[in-house]
Here is the input.
Amino acid sequence: MFNRHVTRRAAEYPHYIAIERLSAPKTQDESGEELSADGYWETLAEGWAKIEPVSGRDYFQNLQVQSALTHKVELRTFVDGVTPRDRVSFGNRTFNIAAIINPEERGRQLELMCSEQQ
Here is the structure.
């Protein structure tokens, strides 16, 4: 759970999200047997946020129409250590983090500019 300074009213943050980090894959289990080389996503932090669409566009790729939608995820509190390699999970939706903004450089809030995975 986000646990730093609360700077705004809870009603302004209606979305319960998780920030997830890809863990390094284990290559062997306790008995020494080889495991899958894929990592897994583990929860770094979770709490209330506000998710807002910022921009969207359609484009052609491989003879198909694709959509790109950018969102701003505003966290009610500051979370240390978030990087663009992490992701935001909200229900069955996943957002890749493109940029991290610390408004006013005060360490009280966090804004994540994200693109939604299709």
Q: What stands out?
A: The beta strands are 15-23, 40-61, 64-75, 87-90, 93-101, 110-116.
